[in-house]
Amino acid sequence: MVEWSLVTNQPAALAAAVLAVGILLGYLVGKLNKRLLTAAGIPESVEGTPFERTAQSLGTSTVTIVARLSSWFVYGVALLTAVHIAQLFSAERFWLRVTEFVPRLFIAALVLVVGFVVADKAELMASERLRGIKLPEVGLLPRVIKYSVLYIASLVALDQIGVNTDALIVLLAVYAFALVFLGGLAFKDFLASGAAGVYLLLNQPYGIGDSVRIGDHEGIVQEVDVFVTHIENDEEEFIVPNSRVLENGIVRIRD
């Protein structure tokens, strides 16, 4: 009777041992990943992004979320292994589906986290690079970049968990076409200013310190970049798109 009891309890005891080892291993994996991510400089890379600020407001961080995802993945595998050993589910098909789905779910969650971080970082970088361009259309570019990255990350995540993304891919193609077509219309002044700026920088009809008149604006040139020309006088500063410089013409004022 004692031997029969021991044999009967072996799967349950083994399942409990596997679960305990899995919990310990998941905890150690999370700690190790957090240290590796910190050593790789990830906290500094994501600092200031909206995702990181949201995570901090909840008492956590991007690095902690990624580390916990790795821990939860190990916990899930350990739990499913323990359930299988204890023979709580006898259907092998169920077990195979679960073992296929859990890694995909982990990758999908990781892709979404990385997608949010990359989208926020791309938006910040684009805003920083375009800050000096005083054209109204430019303010839309960082948002377009952010939501494009998020859309692609969502597609990858949904594909990982087996969702049919064919319709979303078609929608992405339509979105890309609309972005190029409507972007060409909306940013025609922006593109024209860029082309005019290249011409002005190559030919240099005026330079910093020259006294000029461009249309109704008159002053001393302070800066010339690819998109705009900065001129100022004693009372005002003018930021003139380079396309208007070529349209209105340039008058150099001699002392």
Strand order of the largest sheet: 4-3-2-1-5
Backbone structural class: alpha+beta
Q: Runs with pLDDT <50, length 5+?
A: 1-8
How many H/I helical runs? Answer: 9
Radius of gyration: 30 Å
- State the total count of DSSP E strands: 5
How would a textbook summarize the main sheet?
5 strands, antiparallel
Shape: elongated
- The average pLDDT score comes to 76
Classify the beta-strand content into a percent band. Answer: 5-15%
What percent of residues adopt helix (DSSP H or I)?
55-70%
| Alpha-carbon distance between the two ends | 114 Å
SSE string: HHHHHHHHEEEEHE
Care to describe what's here?
This protein has 255 residues and is α+β, with helices and mostly antiparallel strands. Among the domains are: 1-90, no CATH class; 205-252, Roll (SH3 type barrels). It has nine helices and five strands, in the order H-H-H-H-H-H-H-H-E-E-E-E-H-E. It has helices at 2-39, 42-46, 50-57, 62-85, 92-129, 141-160, 166-186, 188-203, 242-248; strands at residues 211-214, 217-224, 228-232, 237-241, 251-252. A five-stranded antiparallel beta sheet has the order 4-3-2-1-5. A hairpin with a 3-residue loop joins strand 2 (217-224) and strand 3 (228-232). Helix 1 (2-39) runs antiparallel to helix 4, helix 4 runs antiparallel to helix 5 and helix 8 (188-203) packs across helix 9. It is elongated, with a radius of gyration of 30 Å. It starts with a helix and ends with a strand. 19% of the residues are buried.
Topology, please?
Blueprint (H helix, E strand, L loop, with lengths): L1 H38 L2 H5 L3 H8 L4 H24 L6 H38 L11 H20 L5 H21 L1 H16 L7 E4 L2 E8 L3 E5 L4 E5 H7 L2 E2 L3
Antiparallel strand pairs: 1-2, 1-5, 2-3, 3-4
Helix pairs in contact: 1-4, 4-5, 5-6, 7-8, 8-9
